[in-house]
Design goal:
Strand content: 5-15%
Largest sheet: 5 strands, antiparallel
Protein name: Transcriptional regulator with XRE-family HTH domain
Radius of gyration: 22 Å
Strand order of the largest sheet: 2-1-5-4-3
InterPro entries: Cro/C1-type_HTH, Lambda_DNA-bd_dom_sf, MLTR_LBD
Low-confidence stretches: 269-290
Helix content: 40-55%
Structural class: alpha+beta
Number of domains: 2
Mean pLDDT: 80
GO molecular function: DNA binding
Distance between the termini: 29 Å
Number of helices: 13
CATH architecture of the largest domain: 2-Layer Sandwich
Pfam family, one: HTH_31
């Protein structure tokens, strides 16, 4: 973002860093430079919602970034939810049955920090058998970033993993005192140079629909479309459903996957080429090579 792009005159040709200066952001937001500087540095200040909205507009923040700004300010002023006691999320039985009723879609329910709370059989066939993993390893972000099987499965692995990092940062801002989130971030930072770089970018993101490309070890190339649904009355639980793209090859591959997954004798077996879980094998540590 440059001064010209927001209608401000250029003040001098040389800038040590690109983007707007503090006084320029303050001018756009209609606040004093001193107040904006104190806010940026995390010093004691309690801006009104209107001031935060003005700053968000000045910085052209998207919805996820605006929510993250509000979360950070709420935590800074002591208005966040207390979370000294770890929150154990569970999916109620009726929602489990609802999830298993989807026979043509791969479905799973995510909780805080990307924890996998429940899956159906097509999800286990498409991604991994999360139900067979130790409880603390059932996390989508952790699996995508640390497990070599995920890196092989996702055609656009680096983009997907970077997006999951940004989504995790958004969740961490929403629950700043969550011990398990801190533990997950620490583990990923120790084991993945990629994660350390993405986390340092301070990007936040939310994804409610989109498209992903896979190279599945059983059915080959596969493109899917997905949609996310927040579960009313279920705190921080989101249902994700995957469907094949409209291309005939994707439809055929999906039917083949569903046929394989429908056999209870095969679904609990690792898919061909699926690596063992990373938590107990140091060989699974991301060395940061691109």
């Amino acid at each position: 973002m440059s001064p010209e792009s927001v209608g401000l005159p250029e003040r001098g040709a040389y800038r040590r860093v690109p983007g707007l200066r503090r006084e320029e952001v303050a001018q756009l937001a209609g606040v004093s430079t001193d107040d904006y500087t104190r806010l940026e540095q995390g010093r004691p200040i309690s801006p009104s919602p209107g001031v935060l909205e003005a700053i968000a507009a000045a910085l052209r923040l998207d919805d996820a970034e605006r929510a993250h700004l509000s979360d950070l300010m709420r935590a800074h002023t002591g208005g966040g939810k207390p979370s000294g006691v770890p929150v154990v999320q569970r999916v109620r039985p009726g929602l489990h049955r609802f999830l298993e009723s989807f026979t043509d879609q791969a479905g799973f329910i995510l909780g805080r920090r990307g924890d996998i709370l429940a899956t159906n059989y097509l999800c286990r066939a498409l991604l991994a058998d999360f139900d067979a993993m130790p409880y603390r390893e059932r996390n989508l972000t952790r699996w995508i970033i640390l497990d070599p099987a995920a890196r092989e499965l996702y055609v656009d692995w680096e983009q997907i993993a970077a997006e999951m990092t940004a989504i995790l940062r958004l969740d961490a801002g929403r629950h700043p005192d969550d011990a398990r989130t801190a533990e997950l971030v620490g583990e990923l930072a120790m084991k993945s140079e990629h994660f350390r770089r993405w986390w340092a970018d301070h990007k936040v993101l939310t994804r409610t629909f989109g498209r992903k490309r896979f190279r599945h070890p059983l059915v080959g190339p596969l493109t899917i479309d997905y949609q996310a649904f927040a579960m009313p009355g279920e705190d921080d639980q989101t249902l994700f459903l995957y469907l094949p793209a409209d291309d005939q090859a994707d439809q055929d591959a999906w039917r083949l996957l569903a046929s394989w997954a429908a056999d209870p004798a095969t679904i609990r077996q690792p898919a061909p080429g699926q690596a063992a879980r990373s938590a107990t094998d140091s060989a699974h540590t991301d060395r940061g090579t691109s």
